[in-house]
Each structure stands twice: as structure tokens, then as C-alpha cells.
Amino acid sequence: MVWEEFTERTNVTKAKPSLVILKTRKMQTFLVTGGVGFIGSNFVLKARIEQWANIINLDKLTYASNPQTLAQLQDDSGYHFVRGDIGDIELLRIEQYQPDAIINFAAQSHVERSIKSPQDFIQTLDL
User: What is the pTM of this model?
Assistant: First the structure.
């Protein structure tokens, strides 16, 4: 559903989607998985540059990751990086992070890799 249809059906003001988050009383904390990949890193950067969410970024750092895209957040007190796999149950005990929301960008990419090694894709996508 496009944003315009959503706003008409829900009577939400026609502000940008990111502005809806700003209506809360405190800055939210998001646990982002896969936040060093292409899409996830752009979300993380936008959240921190615009200061509308604190981020705990959990990423395995695979072939699809690009840590350099988040280098500017190195000294940002609202950003915390955790290297790990979303399949690690102990690591995912969210009470240690106290997030307001979990946003999952963790995924395997490149279709040709899914043909050669389908188990990796099934493992990641099933979680």
C-alpha cells in the first residue's frame, strides 16, 4: 500500500512517514538487524542523522556488508554496533538492549548464490 492510501484509510496526517515517529515523547531505540547492508545502512544513517531514533545495529558482516557506509557514526552516542548472527539466540536476548522496536534488514542477497548454497538463504530467511 502506498503512503497516500495508508493516510486516507487511517486518517493519519499526510506527513512524511519518518515524521510519524517524531510524535512520541522520547527518542525511540530500534534494534536493527542487517544494518550494515545496503538498505539497512541507509535506514540507520537516516535515523541517526535526523536524530529520530537511537540504533543498536546487529550485523554478521558478510559479503553484502559495507562497514564504511557507517563510519561517520563511530563517535555517535546514539549508535551501537554489535557483530553477530541473528541465529544466535543468546545474542538476541532483547532485554539487554531494551528496544522499542526491532527492524529486520538481515538477508542473503544475490540470486546466483541462493542456487549454489540454498541452505544459507533458508537459514537466514526462516528466522
Answer: 0.66
